[in-house]
Amino acid sequence: MSSSNVIDRPLRIGLLAVTVIGLTLASRGGAQATDAPSVTRAAHAAHLDRMLRAEDLKQALLEAADANQTNLVLQNARRLKPLVTAEHIYWTNAGDARALTLSHQNQQALDQLIATAAQGNADRAYNSALAFAASCSACHDNHPEQRVRIRN
């Protein structure tokens, strides 16, 4: 793991904590639409934990792809699979259609990455890794957490 990942992890944790605090405060005050996506506090906490673990695995996967280590790309992609699947379930339960669409695209990109890395072609695995990372960013850049109401 590079030193930048060690520095970035506390920053990511801090940003997630600020998000949780903001969402908690938002859920306690003001009227929100009853049809707004919503999740339980426990589901939201599990989501945040998955995001941290997925980010670490994604960074390891990208580093392996950059080093042409398709075996490590495949290993990390396979470790990501249950996290990505759980995130799809999370967004299904939350009821956020936009996040659900992006989550489905993320699952497809990961499946393609696994298939490509299993073939052992480093160039194709690298390109698939970049496509997978882009699918992660597409969802994160959409900021679905800002639309989710946390319920008890």
Walkthrough of the structure:
This protein has 152 residues and is mainly α. 80% of the residues lie in helices and 4% in strands. Helix 2 (41-66) runs antiparallel to helix 3, helix 2 (41-66) runs antiparallel to helix 5 and helix 4 (97-119) packs antiparallel against helix 5. It has 5 helices and 2 strands, in the order H-E-H-H-H-H-E. The protein has a two-stranded parallel ribbon.
Question: How big is the Rg?
Answer: 16 Å
SS field, number of helical segments:
5
Q: What would the average pLDDT be, to the nearest integer?
A: 85
> Percentage of helical residues?
over 70%
Q: Write down the overall geometry.
A: elongated
How would you spell out the order of helices and strands?
HEHHHHE
Structural class: mainly alpha
Strand order of the largest sheet: 1-2
Terminal Cα separation, in Å? 37 Å
Please describe the biggest sheet, giving its number of strands, its sense, and whether it closes into a barrel. Answer: 2 strands, parallel
Please tally the β strands and state the result: 2
User: Segments where pLDDT lies below 50 for 5+ residues?
Assistant: 1-6, 23-33
Strand-residue proportion: under 5%
